[in-house]
Request: fold
Amino acid sequence: MINFRRITEKNFDEIIRMSRPVDEHFVASNAYSLAQAWLYREENDVYPFAIYNDDTAVGFMMLDEDLKERCLVLWRIMFPEKNTGRGYGTKAIHQIIKLAKESGKYDFMILDCAPENERARHVYEKIGFYDTGEIENGEHIMRFDF
Reply:
């Protein structure tokens, strides 16, 4: 079962070592993401998590919330190649959607997707995200309404 855990001294090295192929540029490294989370820590709205399948770390996710806009942002999601195609991403996003709805704090969720990242775009659309037509830093903004 998919679950989310804080990044701690216990799982830090394992999460940092997770990576995508070097020729793929769709997502920043987990180390870079954790540095950004630290950078924005005073705003208390950026949340990095390790994604686990039962007790095995399988990926990384970072969320950002905008309570004024009632929006949850899926800022980063990353699975090493050995963990792709196993449904972990779909299950993790479904779980985040469920938790976000239950919290009552958000009306919608957004993420961005590189236009050439067809695999991710397919997953997001299958879940129910749609392209808003907005482009930010060359990436398409996708939205899921609760």
Q: What stands out?
A: The domain at 2-145 is CATH 3.40.630.30 (Aminopeptidase). Residues 22 and 75 are 20 Å apart (CA to CA). Helices lie at 12-17, 30-39, 88-103, 118-127.
